[in-house]
Design goal:
Layout: H1 5-13, H2 33-55, H3 58-65, H4 69-76, H5 79-99, H6 108-125, H7 127-138, H8 148-170, H9 180-196, H10 198-205, H11 212-241
């Protein structure tokens, strides 16, 4: 019976290496295609985040995952396909966290604060996401533009934010003249900058952005700024509508 290409590749990836007497050998990979694919993605995420598309090497990824370059090409079609899969996974994980945030029953301001805090905490905990986005901006978005999946994922993120804003507008607590994408950009800009410029900003201004006290203050600050700006016009209107006390 002929072996399939996948079986041949898997077998090739597990071909025993010549052992040196007395030296411990690394454990060999079990036959688990999905685990193998995920391991490749995880290591490739680290390589592309650290070195960018041009600097990352498929040979290094293969060595770290104890697979072969041929196996990686089998799963992803090549370096560009692997890089695109890494980008898609990075965005998918962030958007999944946003989708899992159950805020439908929360007051609009509370729901928005929770969404902002999630964005803040996620980017703090996943600097590789920020580095990947920076790297793709160096590429002028060339690879991201090829992914319909990423575009669809980001539409969902805006829908969640738009729903919160619409509820706030209907309740009269948020100003009516806002674009959800502008609000998303305002939130993302601050959260992203703290991670992307942590070292340069910290050195120039002698401020440790990873300090828990600074981090907590900034998380409150960005939520207060966004919510305060959204309520600014409604607050002014309410103040104007109230009768003035006699002098």
């Amino acid at each position: 019976m002929e072996r399939s290409e996948h079986q041949t590749l898997e077998a090739g990836s597990r071909r025993p290496e010549r052992e040196t007497p007395g030296e411990p050998q690394p454990p060999r990979r079990a036959h688990d295609p999905e685990r193998t694919r995920q391991d490749i993605l995880d290591v490739a995420t680290e390589e592309f985040a650290a070195l960018g598309f041009s600097g990352a090497r498929v040979d290094a990824i293969a060595e770290r995952t104890r697979t072969t370059k041929r196996m990686i090409y089998y799963y992803f079609g090549g370096k560009e396909g692997l890089y695109l899969a890494v980008l898609e996974q990075a965005y998918r994980k962030l958007r999944a966290a946003e989708t899992d945030l159950a805020v439908g029953d929360e007051a609009p301001a509370d729901a928005l604060r929770k969404l902002i805090e999630l964005t803040f905490d996620y980017q703090e905990a996943h600097p590789e996401f920020v580095r990947l986005v920076n790297a793709e901006n160096v590429n002028n978005g060339r690879y991201l533009a090829q992914s319909e999946a990423i575009l669809g994922l980001n539409v969902t993120a805006i829908d969640i934010l738009a729903s919160i804003l619409q509820r706030g507008q209907a309740n009269g607590v948020f100003r009516p003249d806002v674009d959800p994408i502008d609000v998303h950009m305002l939130i993302s800009a601050f959260c992203f900058f703290r991670v992307s410029n942590r070292y340069t900003f910290g050195l120039v201004f002698q401020r440790d952005l990873s300090s828990p006290a600074v981090r907590d203050r900034h998380k409150r600050m960005i939520a207060d700024v966004v919510i305060g700006w959204l309520a600014e016009e409604t607050g002014a209107r309410h103040a104007q509508s109230r009768p003035h006390a006699p002098a």
